[in-house]
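Subject — a protein and its fold
Fields — amino acid sequence, C-alpha cells
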Amino acid sequence: MKVSFLCENVNKKISIVNHAVSSRSQLPILLNFLFKAEKGKFTISATDLEIGIEAEVPASIEEEGSVTVPAKTFYDLLSSVDKGKIVLKTEENNLIFEGDKIRTIFQTIKADEFPKIYEEKGEEIGIFTKEVLEKEIPEVVFSASQDTGRPALSGVLFGRGKSRKGDFYMVATDGYRLSFKKGGVGDGDEDKILVPSRILRELAMLKDGGDVSVRVSPKSNQIIFEQEDVIMVGRLIEAEFPNYQKIIPQDYSTKAVIDRKDFLSAVKTCAVFARETANIIKLSIGKNKIVVSASAPSVGETTIDVDATMEGEENEIAFNVRYVLEFLSNTDGEKIIFEMSGPLNSGVFKIEGEPNYLHIIMPIRIQG
C-alpha cells in the first residue's frame, strides 16, 4: 500500500473514527486503525465490537492494499503534525509515515485479522436531517442509561405510531427520568428497534454535514448511519423496553409556565447547596412564581424566586438537581411548561410550542 494525503484533510475524519477505538480490549487488533486503499478509495476504520466507524479520506493512491496500526500512537502523531503532505507506505510488516522532516515506522497487524464492521448496509428506513441531529436526538438521548448492564435502558426506542404516515417516535429512560419525542425521524413500516444510545451520541459529531441515511440489516442485527463519506454502525439491542405509556401521567393538578433561562439560572445556583445533601432541590409552586430552594445543614440554604404563570393548586415537589439541569441544558425552548399532581407523583416538563415532546422526572421523597 502507498497513499498520500494532506494532513489537514485527515485530522477531522480520524478524530471521528478514533471514538470507536477500544480503550481496554484484550484483543490487540481492536486497539488499531484499519487503513484500506481499494478501488480508488482510502478509508480509515475502527471498532470496539459495540460500534464501528469508517471514514473515507481524500487521498492519492499509488498502490492498493490494507494494514492496521496502533490507533493511539498514530492519532497522537498525526495530531502533532499541523499541515502538509503525508505519505503512508507499507514495507514488509511495517508502515512508514513520512512528512516534511519526519519519518516514523509503525509495527502493524495484518488487516485480515480486523473484524468486519458490517456485512451489508441493509434497507434504508429513514433519513436524519440536520434538525434531527442537532435538536431532536439530543432532546431524548440524554435520558438513556449509560450502564450497559441494563441493556433495555441503555438504548433509545424508535417506533412507528399507529398512523400510516411516517409517524415515528423516540423514547429513552434510565428508570428515573424519561424523554419522549414524536415526529419525522424516519419513514417506513418497521415497528420498533432499540438503538444503543452511545452511537446516537456519536452521531452528534456529524451535525455539520448533510442528511444521514438510516439503514437496518436484519441479517447482522445492525443499524447503519451513513453521511457522505462517514459510516457509523451499531448493534441493535435485543431486550424488552419498558411500557413507557404507563409512565406518562395523563392529568395534573398544577401547571406553571416559566422562562427556561431564568429557571436554569436558579437551578444552577441551588445546585451549589444541593450537592452537599444528595443533590436535592425543592420546587414550591405558588401564585405567579416558582421558588427553587436547596439547603445543606453544614453550609446553609438558598431560595430563588422565578416568575411563573400558574394555574391549579399550589404544590411542592423535590428532584435530583442533576436531572433537572440535564433536561434544561438539552432543550432550547424559551418557555418551559411544568405539570404535576402531587409531591410523590412524577413531574412533567414540556416545551411551549413543541406539543410532540415531553420529559418526566421521578420525584424524591423528603421530610417536612
Notes: Residues 260-274 form the longest helix (15 residues).
